[in-house]
Design a protein that fits this description.
Blueprint: E1 14-20, H1 32-46, E2 49-56, H2 67-77, E3 83-86, H3 89-92, H4 96-108, E4 112-115, H5 125-158, E5 171-173, E6 179-181, H6 183-199, H7 202-210, H8 224-232, E7 239-242, E8 245-248, H9 257-267, H10 282-303
Parallel strand pairs: 1-2, 1-3, 3-4
Antiparallel strand pairs: 5-6, 7-8
Length: 304
């Protein structure tokens, strides 16, 4: 394999193909279809019969927790193919620990590994040595990418920039990567804090938001959990905290310290030794009961 004759002795070599992408937008040359095409072409050159194709889309290669990869392992263990092809070793695994362990397991199952783009032949001592060298290079590349990514995030955090393309409600990302306040969203954030302080109930805030007459695109999919996340976000007081970087950025402030602290005291009032439990206000309780009653009636009607 990999340019040399395959040392498999059966008349018909049963081949399986494994292809993987790490993101939905993988370009041509790395796409699953192109990986499979090149593997099929190699099988035709070698005279091998393709019997199985396993595809994992948008799955990381750092471990083996991939659905089709697991299915492929089960089929290999059952002995339904003799050789597994992949476009490149890092499509198979990008962890040397997993790659070396799996290569030994495949050997015990009588299955050879073949890379289309690398000189890889695990049926010979030289091929096994080469396999470990290639696996080492793949592991080194993955660690370098991870290190560069962390360094990039740290550099952005030091400059007060937001680490990803999804800013919290109340902000937008400027061309330089820093946050800027979105006036309409910031007003909604302040309104949520004020309403929570008044109602002292996250479900109550949700009911208020969902019942607003002049609903807009900002009033949607609210839950007590999303309200809780918003009320906990210190960024609204201008406290920027990303990774190990923590500093005060005045232009990021949306609510005052006093408002934030007041909301925090209310939010944590049952977690400081108090045995009291929050109670559902009467109006919300009535709506809740009515909703459950209507659901039950609908279910009864559907069973008639």
């Amino acid at each position: 394999m990999g340019g040399s004759e395959a040392p498999l002795l059966s008349e018909t070599i049963r081949a399986a193909i494994y292809a993987r992408t790490s993101s939905p937008s993988q370009r041509f040359g790395h796409s699953i279809s192109e990986q499979v095409r090149q593997c099929v072409q190699r099988c035709q050159m070698q005279g091998w019969e393709v019997q199985h194709v396993f595809r994992d889309e948008a799955k990381s290669g750092k471990d083996t927790d991939r659905p089709m990869f697991q299915q492929m392992l089960n089929r290999a263990k059952q002995g339904v193919f003799d050789v597994l092809l992949f476009w490149k070793l890092d499509r198979f695994s990008r962890s040397i620990h997993h790659a070396v362990r799996l290569e030994k397991q495949f050997r015990e199952w009588g299955v050879a590994l073949h890379s289309v783009t690398e000189q890889l032949d695990t049926t010979t001592p030289a091929g096994q040595f080469n396999f470990r060298n290639i696996a080492n290079a793949a592991e080194f590349e993955r660690e370098m990418i991870s290190q560069r990514t962390k360094m990039g995030h740290a550099a952005r955090a030091t400059e007060g920039k937001w680490p990803n393309g999804i800013p919290p409600l109340g902000y937008e990302i400027s061309s330089g990567g820093r946050l800027s306040i979105d006036a309409e969203e910031a007003e909604l954030v302040r309104e949520i804090f004020q309403k929570y302080i008044k109602l002292r109930s996250m479900p109550g805030v949700v009911d208020y938001l969902l019942s607003k007459e002049n609903s807009n695109s900002l009033i949607r999919n609210w839950t007590p959990n999303t309200v809780s996340i918003l009320l906990r976000n210190n960024l609204y007081t201008g406290r920027y905290s990303v990774g190990e970087v923590e500093k005060q950025v005045p232009e990021y402030r949306i609510v005052s310290d006093s408002i934030f602290k007041k909301a925090t005291r209310i939010r944590t009032r049952f977690t400081k030794g108090s045995s009291k439990q929050g109670t559902m206000n009467r109006e919300r309780k009535q709506r809740h009961i009515k909703r459950l009653t209507n659901q039950y009636k609908e279910w009864l009607n559907s069973t008639e």
